[in-house]
Protein backbone atom coordinates (compact mmCIF):
# COMPACT_ATOMS: atom_id res chain seq x y z
CA UNK A 1 0.00 0.00 0.00
CA UNK A 2 2.87 2.37 0.70
CA UNK A 3 4.30 2.34 -2.87
CA UNK A 4 0.83 2.98 -4.34
CA UNK A 5 0.41 5.95 -2.03
CA UNK A 6 3.79 7.33 -3.05
CA UNK A 7 2.90 6.93 -6.73
CA UNK A 8 -0.35 8.79 -6.19
CA UNK A 9 1.49 11.62 -4.44
CA UNK A 10 4.02 11.97 -7.29
CA UNK A 11 1.22 12.68 -9.78
CA UNK A 12 0.27 15.84 -7.93
CA UNK A 13 1.46 19.30 -9.04
CA UNK A 14 4.51 20.72 -7.27
CA UNK A 15 3.80 24.14 -5.75
CA UNK A 16 6.69 26.12 -4.24
CA UNK A 17 6.58 29.20 -1.96
CA UNK A 18 5.26 32.23 -3.80
CA UNK A 19 2.43 30.34 -5.42
CA UNK A 20 4.49 29.09 -8.39
CA UNK A 21 3.82 25.68 -9.90
CA UNK A 22 6.86 23.77 -11.20
CA UNK A 23 6.57 22.44 -14.76
CA UNK A 24 9.39 20.17 -15.99
CA UNK A 25 10.69 20.58 -19.55
CA UNK A 26 12.46 17.89 -21.51
CA UNK A 27 14.16 18.82 -24.78
CA UNK A 28 13.27 15.51 -26.47
CA UNK A 29 12.03 12.09 -25.44
CA UNK A 30 15.59 10.72 -25.24
CA UNK A 31 16.97 13.44 -22.96
CA UNK A 32 17.75 12.46 -19.41
CA UNK A 33 18.12 16.02 -18.11
CA UNK A 34 15.13 18.19 -17.35
CA UNK A 35 14.63 21.92 -17.11
CA UNK A 36 12.20 23.58 -14.69
CA UNK A 37 9.90 26.48 -15.51
CA UNK A 38 7.68 28.18 -12.94
CA UNK A 39 4.14 29.29 -13.71
CA UNK A 40 1.70 31.37 -11.75
CA UNK A 41 -1.60 33.07 -12.41
CA UNK A 42 -1.00 36.68 -13.46
CA UNK A 43 -2.55 38.91 -10.80
CA UNK A 44 -1.31 42.51 -10.79
CA UNK A 45 -3.67 45.18 -9.49
CA UNK A 46 -1.87 47.94 -11.37
CA UNK A 47 -2.31 46.10 -14.68
CA UNK A 48 -4.64 48.29 -16.76
CA UNK A 49 -4.06 46.85 -20.23
CA UNK A 50 -6.76 44.66 -21.74
CA UNK A 51 -4.34 42.34 -23.56
CA UNK A 52 -3.56 40.50 -20.29
CA UNK A 53 -6.86 39.49 -18.62
CA UNK A 54 -6.26 38.63 -14.98
CA UNK A 55 -8.36 35.47 -15.12
CA UNK A 56 -6.80 34.02 -18.32
CA UNK A 57 -3.12 35.03 -18.19
CA UNK A 58 -0.33 32.71 -17.03
CA UNK A 59 2.97 34.21 -15.85
CA UNK A 60 5.95 32.00 -16.76
CA UNK A 61 9.52 32.23 -15.41
CA UNK A 62 12.84 30.64 -16.44
CA UNK A 63 11.98 30.00 -20.10
CA UNK A 64 15.12 28.55 -21.77
CA UNK A 65 16.69 30.34 -24.78
CA UNK A 66 15.85 27.52 -27.22
CA UNK A 67 12.11 28.09 -26.63
CA UNK A 68 10.87 30.68 -29.08
CA UNK A 69 7.48 32.35 -28.97
CA UNK A 70 6.04 29.72 -31.33
CA UNK A 71 7.48 26.88 -29.25
CA UNK A 72 6.00 28.30 -26.02
CA UNK A 73 2.62 28.61 -27.74
CA UNK A 74 2.74 24.96 -28.84
CA UNK A 75 3.86 23.75 -25.41
CA UNK A 76 0.97 25.39 -23.58
CA UNK A 77 -1.58 24.60 -26.30
CA UNK A 78 -2.01 21.15 -24.76
CA UNK A 79 -3.81 22.85 -21.85
CA UNK A 80 -6.16 24.82 -24.13
CA UNK A 81 -6.32 27.31 -26.97
CA UNK A 82 -3.70 30.05 -26.60
CA UNK A 83 -4.68 33.57 -27.56
CA UNK A 84 -1.27 35.29 -27.35
CA UNK A 85 2.28 34.82 -26.02
CA UNK A 86 4.71 37.53 -24.89
CA UNK A 87 8.38 36.94 -24.13
CA UNK A 88 10.77 39.43 -22.55
CA UNK A 89 13.93 39.84 -20.52
CA UNK A 90 12.09 40.95 -17.36
CA UNK A 91 8.50 41.24 -16.11
CA UNK A 92 6.56 44.25 -17.25
CA UNK A 93 4.92 45.67 -20.33
CA UNK A 94 6.34 44.41 -23.61
CA UNK A 95 3.83 46.25 -25.79
CA UNK A 96 5.38 48.72 -28.21
CA UNK A 97 4.05 52.26 -27.77
CA UNK A 98 4.99 53.36 -31.29
CA UNK A 99 4.31 51.81 -34.68
CA UNK A 100 4.95 48.11 -35.05
CA UNK A 101 8.34 47.56 -36.68
CA UNK A 102 9.49 44.63 -38.74
CA UNK A 103 12.03 42.26 -37.21
CA UNK A 104 14.59 43.53 -39.74
CA UNK A 105 14.51 47.01 -38.16
CA UNK A 106 14.58 45.92 -34.52
CA UNK A 107 17.72 45.57 -32.41
CA UNK A 108 18.99 42.06 -31.83
CA UNK A 109 17.32 40.30 -28.91
CA UNK A 110 19.32 39.42 -25.84
CA UNK A 111 20.21 35.77 -25.53
CA UNK A 112 19.30 34.14 -22.26
CA UNK A 113 16.42 32.95 -20.13
CA UNK A 114 13.12 34.75 -20.60
CA UNK A 115 9.92 35.54 -18.76
CA UNK A 116 6.61 35.26 -20.52
CA UNK A 117 2.87 35.85 -20.41
CA UNK A 118 0.61 33.19 -21.93
CA UNK A 119 -2.99 34.29 -22.50
CA UNK A 120 -5.59 31.54 -22.93
CA UNK A 121 -9.04 31.86 -24.43
CA UNK A 122 -10.62 30.06 -21.45
CA UNK A 123 -9.87 30.33 -17.75
CA UNK A 124 -10.11 26.54 -17.41
CA UNK A 125 -6.91 26.21 -19.47
CA UNK A 126 -5.05 28.24 -16.87
CA UNK A 127 -6.23 25.91 -14.10
CA UNK A 128 -5.16 22.88 -16.17
CA UNK A 129 -1.63 24.30 -16.58
CA UNK A 130 -1.34 24.97 -12.84
CA UNK A 131 -2.52 21.45 -11.94
CA UNK A 132 -0.14 19.64 -14.33
CA UNK A 133 1.74 16.84 -12.45
CA UNK A 134 5.42 17.54 -11.94
CA UNK A 135 6.48 13.99 -12.91
CA UNK A 136 5.15 14.39 -16.50
CA UNK A 137 7.61 16.59 -18.43
CA UNK A 138 6.64 18.76 -21.38
CA UNK A 139 8.63 17.70 -24.46
CA UNK A 140 9.99 20.63 -26.46
CA UNK A 141 11.33 18.96 -29.59
CA UNK A 142 9.08 16.40 -31.28
CA UNK A 143 8.56 15.10 -34.80
CA UNK A 144 5.75 17.57 -35.35
CA UNK A 145 7.70 20.45 -33.76
CA UNK A 146 11.41 20.32 -34.61
CA UNK A 147 13.59 22.73 -32.61
CA UNK A 148 17.03 23.35 -34.05
CA UNK A 149 20.07 23.81 -31.84
CA UNK A 150 23.85 24.15 -32.28
CA UNK A 151 25.18 24.46 -35.83
CA UNK A 152 21.77 23.89 -37.39
CA UNK A 153 20.34 26.80 -35.43
CA UNK A 154 23.20 29.10 -36.47
CA UNK A 155 22.74 28.16 -40.13
CA UNK A 156 19.01 28.86 -39.87
CA UNK A 157 19.61 32.26 -38.24
CA UNK A 158 22.15 33.18 -40.92
CA UNK A 159 19.73 32.19 -43.69
CA UNK A 160 16.87 34.16 -42.10
CA UNK A 161 19.05 37.27 -41.85
CA UNK A 162 18.79 37.76 -45.63
CA UNK A 163 15.68 39.27 -47.17
CA UNK A 164 14.53 39.74 -50.73
CA UNK A 165 14.56 43.38 -51.95
CA UNK A 166 10.93 43.15 -53.11
CA UNK A 167 9.75 41.95 -49.69
CA UNK A 168 11.79 44.64 -47.94
CA UNK A 169 10.30 47.31 -50.21
CA UNK A 170 6.78 46.12 -49.33
CA UNK A 171 7.57 46.38 -45.60
CA UNK A 172 8.97 49.91 -46.02
CA UNK A 173 6.00 51.04 -48.13
CA UNK A 174 3.52 49.68 -45.60
CA UNK A 175 5.31 51.44 -42.74
CA UNK A 176 5.43 54.77 -44.61
CA UNK A 177 1.72 54.57 -45.47
CA UNK A 178 0.89 54.13 -41.79
CA UNK A 179 3.29 56.96 -40.90
CA UNK A 180 1.70 59.37 -43.39
CA UNK A 181 -1.76 58.45 -42.15
CA UNK A 182 -0.81 59.17 -38.53
CA UNK A 183 0.75 62.52 -39.50
CA UNK A 184 -2.41 63.54 -41.37
CA UNK A 185 -4.53 62.65 -38.35
CA UNK A 186 -2.23 64.64 -36.03
CA UNK A 187 -2.32 67.67 -38.37
CA UNK A 188 -6.12 67.53 -38.49
CA UNK A 189 -6.27 67.30 -34.69
CA UNK A 190 -3.96 70.31 -34.33
CA UNK A 191 -6.08 72.30 -36.75
CA UNK A 192 -9.23 71.56 -34.74
CA UNK A 193 -7.50 72.48 -31.48
CA UNK A 194 -6.29 75.78 -32.96
CA UNK A 195 -9.86 76.65 -33.96
CA UNK A 196 -11.14 75.85 -30.47
CA UNK A 197 -8.65 78.08 -28.68
CA UNK A 198 -10.24 81.19 -27.18
CA UNK A 199 -8.24 84.17 -25.98
CA UNK A 200 -9.56 86.85 -23.61
CA UNK A 201 -8.42 90.48 -23.26
CA UNK A 202 -5.48 89.63 -20.98
CA UNK A 203 -4.10 87.03 -23.37
CA UNK A 204 -5.15 83.89 -21.48
CA UNK A 205 -5.60 80.81 -23.64
CA UNK A 206 -8.16 78.10 -22.93
CA UNK A 207 -6.41 74.71 -22.88
CA UNK A 208 -8.43 71.53 -23.25
CA UNK A 209 -7.22 68.18 -22.01
CA UNK A 210 -6.55 65.53 -24.62
CA UNK A 211 -7.28 61.84 -24.50
CA UNK A 212 -5.77 59.74 -21.72
CA UNK A 213 -2.35 58.42 -22.66
CA UNK A 214 -2.00 60.74 -25.66
CA UNK A 215 1.39 62.32 -26.13
CA UNK A 216 1.76 66.10 -25.86
CA UNK A 217 1.71 67.75 -29.27
CA UNK A 218 3.71 70.88 -30.15
CA UNK A 219 1.88 74.17 -30.65
CA UNK A 220 0.76 74.94 -34.16
CA UNK A 221 2.51 77.61 -36.22
CA UNK A 222 -0.47 79.96 -35.98
CA UNK A 223 -0.56 79.71 -32.17
CA UNK A 224 3.19 80.37 -31.94
CA UNK A 225 2.81 83.43 -34.18
CA UNK A 226 0.01 84.88 -32.04
CA UNK A 227 2.05 84.35 -28.86
CA UNK A 228 5.07 86.07 -30.39
CA UNK A 229 3.01 89.09 -31.49
CA UNK A 230 1.48 89.41 -28.02
CA UNK A 231 4.91 89.39 -26.37
CA UNK A 232 6.18 92.03 -28.80
CA UNK A 233 3.23 94.32 -27.97
CA UNK A 234 3.89 93.95 -24.24
CA UNK A 235 7.56 94.72 -24.69
CA UNK A 236 6.81 97.77 -26.82
CA UNK A 237 4.38 99.23 -24.25
CA UNK A 238 6.93 98.74 -21.49
CA UNK A 239 9.67 100.48 -23.46
CA UNK A 240 7.46 103.51 -24.25
CA UNK A 241 6.28 103.83 -20.66
CA UNK A 242 9.79 104.07 -19.18
CA UNK A 243 11.77 105.30 -22.14
CA UNK A 244 13.99 107.66 -20.09
CA UNK A 245 15.72 106.87 -16.78
CA UNK A 246 14.22 109.89 -15.01
CA UNK A 247 10.74 108.69 -16.02
CA UNK A 248 11.42 105.34 -14.36
CA UNK A 249 12.65 107.08 -11.18
CA UNK A 250 9.61 109.40 -11.05
CA UNK A 251 7.32 106.41 -11.46
CA UNK A 252 8.96 104.70 -8.50
CA UNK A 253 8.75 107.88 -6.35
CA UNK A 254 5.05 108.33 -7.12
CA UNK A 255 4.43 104.71 -6.24
CA UNK A 256 6.26 105.03 -2.89
CA UNK A 257 4.38 108.27 -2.08
CA UNK A 258 1.07 106.56 -2.80
CA UNK A 259 1.99 103.68 -0.49
CA UNK A 260 2.93 106.11 2.33
CA UNK A 261 -0.34 107.99 1.91
CA UNK A 262 -2.32 104.78 2.21
CA UNK A 263 -0.29 103.76 5.23
CA UNK A 264 -1.11 107.02 7.09
CA UNK A 265 -4.80 106.69 6.24
CA UNK A 266 -4.81 103.14 7.58
CA UNK A 267 -3.14 104.28 10.84
CA UNK A 268 -5.81 106.96 11.39
CA UNK A 269 -8.63 104.53 10.71
CA UNK A 270 -7.20 101.96 13.15
CA UNK A 271 -6.78 104.64 15.87
CA UNK A 272 -10.40 105.70 15.40
CA UNK A 273 -11.61 102.11 15.72
CA UNK A 274 -9.61 101.62 18.91
CA UNK A 275 -11.09 104.77 20.43
CA UNK A 276 -14.62 103.64 19.68
CA UNK A 277 -13.90 100.24 21.25
CA UNK A 278 -13.04 101.64 24.72
CA UNK A 279 -15.44 100.73 27.59
CA UNK A 280 -17.13 103.74 29.26
CA UNK A 281 -19.52 102.68 32.06
CA UNK A 282 -20.64 106.31 32.82
From TrEMBL:
GO molecular function terms noted in the UniProt entry: RNA binding
Key word RNA-binding present: yes
Residue ranges with Basic and acidic residues bias: 180-195, 218-231
InterPro entries, sorted: Nucleotide-bd_a/b_plait_sf, RBD_domain_sf, RRM_dom, RRM_Rrp7, RRP7, RRP7_C, Rrp7A_RRM
GO BP terms, alphabetized: ribosomal small subunit assembly; rRNA processing
Region of interest called Disordered, as start-end residue ranges on this chain: 180-234
Top-rank taxon, per record: Eukaryota
Record flagged with keyword Coiled coil: yes
Gene Ontology CC: CURI complex; UTP-C complex
Coiled-coil intervals: 249-276
Keywords: Coiled coil, RNA-binding
Annotated ranges, domain RRM: 56-154
Family: Belongs to the RRP7 family.
PANTHER family, per database record: RIBOSOMAL RNA PROCESSING PROTEIN 7-RELATED (PTHR13191), RIBOSOMAL RNA-PROCESSING PROTEIN 7 HOMOLOG A-RELATED (PTHR13191:SF0)
Protein name (database record): Ribosomal RNA processing 7 homolog A
Organism of provenance: Seriola lalandi dorsalis
Organism lineage: Eukaryota, Metazoa, Chordata, Craniata, Vertebrata
